[in-house]
Structure formats: C-alpha cells, structure tokens
Design a protein that fits this description.
Number of domains: 1
Pfam families: DOMON
Signal peptide: 1-15
Strand order of the largest sheet: 1-2-3-8-7
Order of helices and strands: HEEEEEEEEE
CATH architecture: Sandwich
Largest sheet: 5 strands, antiparallel
Protein name: DOMON domain-containing protein
CATH class: Mainly Beta
GO molecular function: copper ion binding; dopamine beta-monooxygenase activity
Keywords: Signal
C-alpha cells in the first residue's frame, strides 16, 4: 500500500516535542511542527483502520485532515477537543468543503472515532481511529491508487 510505504518513510522521525506521553505505543511518529504538533499512528490492515494520536500545543480544538491534494477542498477532516470535565469530543467535517468557505459538518456517518483525550501543560492530546476505506463518498479513501496529504490545525 502506498500509504504504508509513505508512513514508513516518515515514521523514523525521533524529535517529538509534546510534554504529554502517548496513550499507547505506536509504530510510527512524526513531529509535524517543532514545539507545536506531534502525530503518532499505527496501521491495522486486518481491521482496515488506522489509530492516530495527535498532540498540539493548545487548550482548545485540534484537527487532522486527509486531503487528496494538500488543500481543504475535498479534504476529510476530523476535529476534536476535550471539554472542561475531561470528556473528548470528535466530529467529522466532510469533503464538501469549498475554497474560502467554512467546512460543513458531515452528519451522514461517523468515520472518525474518538478513543481518549486529555489536556495537560498547555497541550491537547486526542487518540482516535479511522477506517482506511470508509466506503463513504464524502470521505477520502486511503488507497494504493491515490496519494494524499495530511492537514492539521489548532
């Protein structure tokens, strides 16, 4: 799978800046932006899913997206936050986002699943999973035939 090969290439990055320990051990990790954003992930081909953990230096919402071309248009974006009682929330913003417009909440299915989350020392950490191929026309499939880009935001 192209996705797994791509992750193998960037999976050997050792610099991680988050002060929060990950919830579990992952196969891959990358510092997306020094002292701002870190990402861990493991691919489970048998279950057709990827478990991610995103840490960002903020105490608010954080987001990770899968884009066919690096832009928001056509991207499949998961947005999460931890509320003031420690409950994690995660929503999907579908691939119907158009340039210079507010993305639209995808209420048709829930393909991004929050597992755990916490805030500590000015960082937000959320663990979530997503199917590799959701079979949902509103989502970006991660397949051999297509390359894609990761987007993140805080």
């Amino acid at each position: 799978m192209l996705f797994i090969v791509l992750l193998l290439i960037i999976g050997d990055v050792l610099a991680i800046s988050s002060l929060i320990q990950p919830f579990t051990t992952y196969k891959y990790s990358i510092e997306l932006q020094p002292d701002i954003a870190d990402l861990w992930w493991t691919v489970d081909s048998d279950a057709n899913e990827i478990t991610f953990e995103l840490h960002m230096k903020t105490t608010g919402w954080i987001a990770l997206g899968i884009s066919p071309d690096g832009g928001m248009k056509g991207a499949d974006i998961g947005v999460g936050w931890v509320d003031n009682i420690g409950k994690v929330h995660f929503q999907c913003i579908g691939s119907i986002c158009i340039r210079f417009a507010i993305p639209i909440l995808d209420n048709t299915t829930s393909n991004w699943l929050a597992l755990r989350g916490r805030e500590s020392d000015g960082w937000t950490a959320i663990q979530f999973k997503r199917l590799i191929d959701t079979c949902d026309p509103m989502d970006v499939s991660i397949t051999v035939e297509y390359s894609f880009c990761l987007l993140y935001s805080l």
